[in-house]
Amino acid sequence: MKHDVLIVGGGVSGTALLYTLSKYTDVKNIGLIEKYSDFGLVNSASTMNSQTLHFGDIETNYTFEKAKKVKRMADMVMKYLETEKFRDCKCNYFIKVPKMVLAVGKEQVDTLRERYKTFSQLFPNLRMIGKEEIGKIEPRVLEGRDPNQELLALVTEDGYTVDFGRLSHCFVDHAKELNPDISFHLNTKVLKIVKQGDSFKLFTNKGEFEANAVVIAAGSHSLKIAKSLGYGKNFSILSMSGSFYTGPKVLNGKVYTMQVAKLPFAAIHGDPEVHDENVTRFGPTAKPILLLERYNNSTFFEYWKTFGVGIKPIISILNITFDRVIFNYLLKNVIYDLPSIGKRAFLKEIKKIVPNIKLEEINFAKGIGGTRPQIINNTTKKLEMGEAKIVGENIIFNITPSPGASTCLGNAFEDTLKLMDFLGNKYKFDKDQFEKDLVL
Questions:
Q1: Backbone phi, then psi, for 242, in 5-degree steps?
Q2: Could you tell me the end-to-end alpha-carbon distance of the chain, in angstroms, rounded to an integer?
Q3: pLDDT (tens digit, 0 to 9) for every residue of the chain, 440 residues total?
Q4: Of 91, 88, 87, 55, whose CA–CA distance to 73 is shortest?
């Protein structure tokens, strides 16, 4: 059977596109291929990411322009969540809590105060608060802290902790209701894609598929597939694994620390578990691993195919790791995952948020933490910040490092526009209805 559109990848990005096509276009002949037995089992799973809906208000490494773009897309997910929780209890898989970014010491306080002048225009619900109000919202942030230490925070009530794996299921359920003709192919691994004239042939362990247009939404694997078709040759993947520590409920909401501007990795933060608010999760750590998927050793050789063999990727990785800020960061994070010594080392980071937390209160969260595909540009020999998307001839490759889950509907909107063009504008995309439903 020949599909108009085939989506490869059943995580939150692929299923958001499936939902968008099903609700806002008249394309009916759609297929979704997922190599695992269910949707949202890899980086969309609640155990594999930070569970945070990122807007750019408390992520202090975001520029104003990036925050503006991320906010627009994250607002779409927020509106979907808030709308669907009333329509269908199955979609009630998030919690809403206060969130803040905490500045400690004069230098950070001055930086955050200046940032607020600009970012308050974009985020009208964001408030700047001092030590007294910080203590009322998050008592444990003040307990045991040096009373002479300068503190400032930006706070908002709009803190969303989301199970993006369950969100993937919700997108699929709603897509099925809207278009019963969608074909789903689970436990189906794409082995090879070949361009044949105006269409594509996909060879899998379950047979062959054909499509006029293809979207690869398979995380790190997207770049491997792109390279097999001649795209993205100048890119490599730096796989970063993130781990977490957990403790009792010591925070009422999300508390972020200030981000080092040069680093694309998330600053240490604490927030409640999406399915158990009595557990606080601290992290993430970040260390490089030679796998495309955490806990899946079979992706070792796939990683090297994606990284690329040659002098350019090696020069790039040396250039990146010999940067003093990045090297020190990576070295510290390798230590955090070590038995015994790692827990003691990471406790110092947690104490920046909760000063009087004790060693026996925290534990390494085994089996929690995923893999983030950080793009290396072998032309510039630098890390690429933000999401990565490669657009080819009638094919799109979404590699989506953070905040990919937060921007899944915005990316789906952009991909749908491209797909309409790929399909010769034979189909209609109701952009006005999309914006009416999902854009604030």
A1: -115, 130
A2: 39
A3: 799 999 999 999 999 999 999 999 999 999 999 999 999 999 899 888 888 999 999 999 888 999 999 999 999 999 999 988 766 656 668 999 999 999 999 999 999 999 999 999 999 999 999 999 999 999 999 999 999 999 999 999 999 999 999 999 999 999 999 999 999 999 999 999 999 999 999 999 999 999 999 999 999 899 999 999 999 999 999 898 888 999 999 999 999 999 876 676 778 899 999 989 999 999 988 888 999 998 899 999 999 989 988 899 999 988 988 888 888 888 888 898 888 899 999 999 999 999 999 999 999 998 888 888 889 999 999 888 667 899 999 999 999 766 889 999 999 999 999 999 999 999 999 999 999 999 97
A4: 55
Which SS3 state, helix, strand or coil, does residue 288 take?
strand
Beta strands in 66-205 (DSSP E): 94-104, 127-129, 151-162, 183-185, 190-196, 199-204
Partners of 160 in beta bridges? 96
User: What is the per-residue DSSP string for 5-71?
Assistant: EEEE--SHHHHHHHHHHHHHB----EEEE-SSSSSS-STTSTTSS--B---SSS-TT--HHHHHHHH
Compute CA distances 376 → 22, 66, 203, 290, 359, whole Å. 34, 19, 28, 14, 37
Distance of CA 402 to the CA centre of its chain: 3
Per CATH, the architecture of 1-51+163-240+286-331+369-440 is what?
3-Layer(bba) Sandwich (3.50)
Return all residues near 289 (Cβ < 8 A) that are at least 6 apart: 239, 240, 241, 371
Torsion sign over Cα 54, 59, 62, 64 = positive
Cα separation, 318 vs 50, whole angstroms? 28
Beta-sheet pairing, 30-33 with 94-104? unpaired
| Rounded CA separation 165/114 (Å) | 37
Burial 333-344 (b: 16+ CB within 10 A, else e): beebbeeeebbe
What residues form DSSP beta bridges with 280? 247, 272
Q: Where are the domains of the chain?
A: 1-51+163-240+286-331+369-440
Please give the order of strands across the beta sheet that includes 363-364.
127-129, 151-162, 94-104, 254-257, 269-273, 276-283, 245-248, 363-364
